[in-house]
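Hi! If you just cloned this repository, the fastest way to understand the data is to look at a raw example. We've pasted two of them here, unedited. The first protein comes first, obviously.
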Amino acid sequence: LIILTLGLAAYANGASENDLFLPLVVSPEPTPTPPGVELRGLWVSRFDWTSYGQAANPGKIDEIVQNAADAGFNAIFFQVRGTADAFYQSDLEPWAQRVSGGSLGQAPDPLWDPLAYMVERAHAAGLQVHAYINVYPVWGCSAPPPETVTPRPLYHQLNGRYGPSGGLQQLSDGTECLGGYRRGTPASIFLDDHLIAVGKDLVTRYDIDGIHLDHIRYGGSATSCDPVSAARYGADCFSDAGYGNWQRAQVNGTVRRFYEEVVPLKPGLWLSAAVWPIHQLNPAWGFSGRPQQGYIHYYQDSKAWLAGGYIDSISPMIYPGSGYNGCDANGDYIEDESSDYWLRSRWQTLVTDFQADNNGRYIIPGIGTGYCSFNEIAARIEMARQIGTAGHALFSYKDLLDNEYFDDLANGPYAETAVPPTIAWHP
């Protein structure tokens, strides 16, 4: 408090020295409450901001940034690579079809760079931008891309090096379409070199705050029986018990190379990954059915990345892909595991499991946004805080927009501002 005596002014107006004067009490401006520390991430997939056959619009990025900032997010995971194509100007991979609305490799007209524009607009609004890339997918399951496209599609680069389909993940019968994608084999050093070149290009040309890896896994438990893996392993696929561990080591190697070769190029750069929601099933949890596990079914040992110290954060994707349930007459979400396996209690169990093995790195659990009740989102945010995670990320923008949940976030879980944590262990 500041106390000012008004005696001199009073005497000037004819008051006597016997008059009683009261001090004037002036309250200073209140000290602002420092923001909390919590990463509040928003996944923005390529399907959230582009439409097939239509030219992408910079105005959509303006809308995304405005809504994210108003809601209280502080980081955007912005997808810039889907199937070895680029949602930014690249000399390594062709323009994605969904940017121009035309063909693969066709630049937008007029020319603009979505990633550069997102970085500019988001940073102006106080938001981080993490470039979100699909790692191993090289094309979808439709007809292969034209070989004449410039830059030459990675699908054809792999064929040129290893022969037709030789560089792709495969089942023992030669099937190469796995989970909606043709995927490059993690056994390929050539593929790894290309991926690292893409990462270096992003980091050195754009002022991004992080690189976010998705589809950093095999396409299924029966993959891969490709010739590159057989040659490097020295035996047929799954010929002995060590093959699964060898495949995990290939994925681990890709992550480690990003951390050792790309991250040092930009001080403070954050390397994160979206990972399978169950690392390994613990019978004590009492989960029903036979849910797939990242470690066993996709050869994704995300806990090894934490233990080895070559990832900054992982985001377990603990939400339905699309099969959200409805709400009852009271507006409450119906928990039915037959159609949505990721019940609140299971979400809490899985986040707790990852948090217990974080090795000082950050767990940023994924929360779905397709619930018909906002309470499901708010409850998971609160559980993450109680568990002690470094934040959380919501998937994805389109469902938040369709459900009109931005105001609910701003007036509820995000009513108090927060800033992302720093990466204290980086040199």
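Ok, and the second one:
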Amino acid sequence: MLIKQLCFDCGYGSAALRERIYCENKSQENKMQGILIYTAAGDSEGTMGGLVRQGEAGRIEKIIQRALQDAMWCGADPICIESPGQGTGNSNLAACHNCCLLPETSCEQGNRFLDRALLVGLPEDRTKGFFYRLLAQKKAP
């Protein structure tokens, strides 16, 4: 969802961007989490500077909020949001090509273990979403 929003904001196609998620919680002193979104293509599709600029303080927060707001609805709803399992080995819940899935080259985990309802909640109960409090705040422009 974040890559799709960044594509809209900086001009790259979703196949040109890739992501890597970093997370470690082995000890209290060494907790670490981060996300790297990068491009391996340097062509006329977009500019690396445009992508870098989106990560600046004040911009990235709005991008994340817009991505989450957009994730509250999918063109395949209610089928997508109510899915008991879809994708490879039914490893995805509320995730389809309309809302979450990326080109094969972009997703390190192969578009598995995705569920936008985990992030934004269900239409009838948004409080079940991890980002409920953020979404309840003022909407990003």
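That's it. A detail worth noticing about the second one: Strands lie at 17-24, 32-39.
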